[in-house]
Structure formats: structure tokens, C-alpha cells
Amino acid sequence: MSAAAAGTSKAAHGDVAPKKRRGPGALAYLVIYNVVMTAGWLVIAVGLVRAYLARGSYHGLYYSIEKPLKFFQTGAMLEILHCAVGIVPSSVVLTGFQVMSRVFLTWAVTHSVREVQSEDSVLLFVTAWTVTEIIRYSFYTFSLLNHLPFLIKWARYTFFFVLYPMGVTGELLTIYAALPYVQKTGLYSVTLPNKYNFSFDYHSFLILVMISYIPLFPQLYFHMIRQRKKVLGHIEDYSKVE
Amino acid sequence: MDVLALEAKNVTTAEAEKKSAPRPKPKPPKKAKRTVFFEVEIVDLKTKEKLLLLDKVIRSLSIPTDPKWYPARQSLRLDPKAKCLRDEDILQTLPVGTTASFYFSDLGPQVTWGTVFLTECAGPLIIYLMFYFRLPFIYSPKYDFTSSKQWVVHLACMCHSVHYVKRILETLFVHRISHGTMPLRNIFKNCGYYWCTAAWMAYYINHPLYTPPYYGQPQVNTGLYIFLVCQVGNFSIHVALRNLKSQCAKAKKIPFPTKNPFTWIFWLVSCPNYTYELGSWIGFTVMTQCVPVAFFTLVAFIQMTVWAKGKHRSYLKEFRDYPTLRSSILPFIL
């Protein structure tokens, strides 16, 4: 669900909010962070392409980029810290939610349920995430340096039309594929009786997660569309004048 | 002298029903040689559209409005970013010239605090009992309408029910609420939370496979005593606070310990009602040894600490001589 919308909260602030409370040290750190993340996701992209060319098929490409994917997606949790500390003007809750949902899919679904790793749906969301993140992190890098090429800004607010549904589809299909294995093995589940008088059914929890996409996905999607109008809208006005 | 001189002129009202009764009431001077007239202009906060212009206001009159815009729903401010004016504010004491501009915004449908409290508390009471009596469709059909063989389960039901009955009675007879209303959507939020957590707790405590506490009867008894002591304490504080309010309706006073030993905690804490409430739930957690109960206690602790800190801060702001020994909710700690 966070496929293309991971930066929605920042979309509202990215080009608009003045970067007041940030010192030069924080600025340097953020530039380095965003450059590293861009590079990381480029590595994943290159890894996917090379693996495809080497194997000649789409299947099982996950294994070739498993480690960098885990590393860089988990590293994105630093962004929650950035918001909490205040060097990035975004909501902690919103960023937290977006990052954690990605991390949940990476570790609690794809990593934990080995049988889904060879599914094509995994490739679907990994590709969506990769393209989105490369654009997003380069967007932030250039924004911080005040040299944002229009192409990047346009890409960020246009590609999501396809990437976001693509990512959501990949995520949902992956969770769906994981369900029978989770039920069979009772993964991450706790049953009664036990001395803490608590139970948790991971299978039902995953179904609830899937259902939660229904109200949340349209909200985030339309938010991005509104942001697009705001950010790119005036460009079209200029062209009309000419 | 007390003649009501009032003319209302409608200036560009897009919808006629957006008239509002200006709440700040100017007090007419008793023996003034000349009366001071105020001109009041009401502007919509969002659209900045002028809704109403009243000139020659000495004492306000309740203009018959559309019942939809009852006073509790109106918010009038002096400045778009300022806080709302209160009902008791007097026009003459406000920092305005002879022409006052108020910004009007609609607070949305309102519901009284009493209503919210009652629904919040009635829900868990009924829901817990539904699980206690093991109504159909909750547990496996073979357990329908059966009763637990464990004494602690019956005890927990009694404690939980007593707690909410006490709360309902306090809402009806003890509490004196200063703020009349809150937005309607709060009732859904609050009730949703209370009802869902009550169902979650009740499910496990009344489950056929419930495991009694690890240390057995001593643990249950300890939990029970803590719970009872804190319930009595909580009630004592509510009574003490109500007595404080009833003595002097408008002015605020610092609460102090009374002859009741349960109120002696006022020496150390500003909001002992929250302290006792926390204690009750800790007692209940110990008594039932149930993770959902522990979770509920933790969330309650966080929320009550936020409220206690706010109250403590407002006490410090209001009273110069506020006792320095007091903390907000936990003696010496928080």
C-alpha cells in the first residue's frame, strides 16, 4: 500500500514548507541519507535487471535482491526518526505508518513465509517499490540542494498512477498467497490456554490487513492526485497562456 | 437605562440560517451619564464572509436562530488563531474597540458530556455481562450459557460491573461538569474504544480455557484488595471535588485533603482520581493475569497521565501559591 504513496505526507511539504529549523549539519546528513538510499534502490534495480538477463525469466528474481531489499527498506525506518527529531517536516504518525507497513511486508510476510518468495506477485511489488523509491529519494536529494529538475518532480507526481495500484496488487496477492501456509503452520500465533490468557491468530490478522487496504488505498491515492494538481497544476496554466 | 437598543442588519448572508446569537453579553453601566454602544460584526472564520452586523448593542438579545445553530455549537473568536470565547465573557471587558469583530465557526453537532459518559460506561457493563453469561456465538456452542468453575472469574465480573455501575452513578449524581458539550464524533471514538477493549478483555477472562493466576488465591486476593481500596479512593476524590465546586460555583479553588484518609493523597498529587483509577486497573490486572487487561491498563495510564499533566499545568498557572510538593499523577514520579 505504501508502493508509491510512501512520500505522500512529504508531498505536502516537499516543495512548499520553508526549511527553517534545520542546521547545515542536519542538511548535510539528510542529503547523504537520501543519496545513499537512491543508490541502494538503484542497486536493487540493477540487480533485478541483471538477474532477469542472466536467467531469462521473471521467476525467482527475489532471491537475487533479497539482502539489499531488506537492508534498504529496513533502513527507511530512520525516516521516522527524522520526523520525530524535526529535521523533516512530516507527521511522525503518517511516516511511521507508511514505513512500518513496508517493513511488515518485507519481514513478516515475504521473509517469514518462505513459500511465497518464488511468487510473481513479489516481483510486482518489489518493482513498484524500486521505481518509486529511486524517484522519491532523488526528488528529496535535489529538493534539499534546491536544484530540482522538473523531470523528477513530474515523474514523482505522475508515475504513481501506475506504480501505486501495481504495488498494492503485488502486496495483496503476496499476503493472499501466504495465508494457507500461515494457517497450516500456525506461524506467529498463540493459542489458549496459556498463563497470560491471550491469543493471537496471525492468519486472521493477515486477512484483516488485506481488508484494511479497502478504505486506506483510495484515500492515499486520491491524496496523491490532489497533491499532483497542486504541485503540477500551475505548469499547465502557463502553457495555456502561451 | 436598561433599554435594549438593538438593530440587526444582515450584511451579505449567503444562507439566511447562518445567523448566530452573539454570546458575549455587554453589561450596561449602572449609573453612566452616557451609554456606550457597541457595534458587533460576525464574520465566518473560513470564508471571511460577513454574516451579521449588529449596531447599537448594549445588552445582547437572543436572536431567534435556526435551531440547527444552537449556542453550544457556535464558536466565536476575536482572532482566527485565538481560542474561543466563553459564555461568561463580557463584551466590555474584551480587548475590542467600539466596533467588535468576531469570527464565527461551527463546532459541528455537539453532544453533552453526560450523554457521552453514560454511553461509554453502559456499553462495557452490558458487553462484559454478555461474555460472562456466555451468550451464543461467542464461544463454542457447547459452552453456551455455562458458568465458569473458577471463583476468580465470578470475582472479576463483580469487580468490573461494580466499577462501571459506580461510574454511571457518579455521572448521574456526583460529577459537576464545567464544559457543557463535546463534538459528536467523540462519542463514536470514545465508545468504540471502551466497548472494544471491554469485549476483548471479557472474551479472555470468561473463556472456557481461562487460566487462573499463577500464584493462585494470594494473587487474586492482593489484586482484589488493591482494586477495592482504589475504588473507594476514587469515589472519595470525586466527592471531594464535587464539594469543592458546589461551595463556589464560578471561582476555581485548590483541592485540599479533608478528614477522609483517602483524600490525604492530595498532599502529593494533583489528580488523585486518576491515580486511584490507575491503581484499580493494576489491581484488576493482577487479579486476572490477562494480557488484554494489562494493555488496557497501560493505555489508560498514558491517557490519564496526559490529562493529569494538563490539569496540573492549569493549576500551576491559575494559582500562585499552589503546593510545590504535588506531582500530577504519581507521587514524586510523574
Written description of the protein model:
The complex is a heterodimer of chains A (242) and B (334). Chain A is built from nine helices and no strands. Chain A has helices at residues 8-14, 24-55, 62-75, 78-85, 92-111, 120-144, 150-158, 160-185, 202-241. By secondary structure, chain A is mainly α. The model of chain A is unreliable at 4-19 (pLDDT under 50). The longest helix of chain A has 40 residues, at 202-241. Chain B is α+β, with helices and mostly antiparallel strands and 334 residues long. Chain B has six helices and seven strands, in the order ββββββααβαααα. In chain B, the strands form two sheets. In chain B, strands 1-3-2-5-4 form a five-stranded mixed beta sheet, with no helix packed on it. A two-stranded antiparallel sheet of chain B has the order 6-7. Chain B is globular, with a radius of gyration of 26 Å. The chains are: A mainly alpha (242), B alpha+beta (334). Chain A binds chain B through residues 192-199, and chain B through 204-205, 207, 209-211, 214, 288-292. Chain B: One of its GO terms (cellular component) is membrane. Chain B: Keywords: Endoplasmic reticulum, Membrane, Oxidoreductase, Transmembrane, Transmembrane helix. Chain B: One of its GO terms (molecular function) is oxidoreductase activity, acting on the CH-CH group of donors.
Strand content of chain A is: under 5%
Indicate the percent of residues in helices of chain B: 40-55%
Query: Multimeric state of these chains?
Result: heterodimer
Averaged pLDDT of chain A: 89
Distance between the termini of chain B: 55 Å
Number of helices of chain A: 9
Strand order of the largest sheet of chain B: 1-3-2-5-4
DSSP helical segment count of chain B: 6
Order of helices and strands of chain A: HHHHHHHHH
Shape of chain B: globular
Average of pLDDT of chain B: 81
Sheet bearing the most strands of chain A, described? none
Radius of gyration of chain B: 26 Å
- Low-pLDDT windows of residues of chain A: 4-19
Taking Cα atoms only, what radius of gyration of chain A do you get, to the nearest Å? 19 Å
Structural class of chain A: mainly alpha
Poorly predicted runs of chain B: 1-23, 27-33
User: What class, by secondary structure content of chain B?
Assistant: alpha+beta
Number of strands of chain A: 0
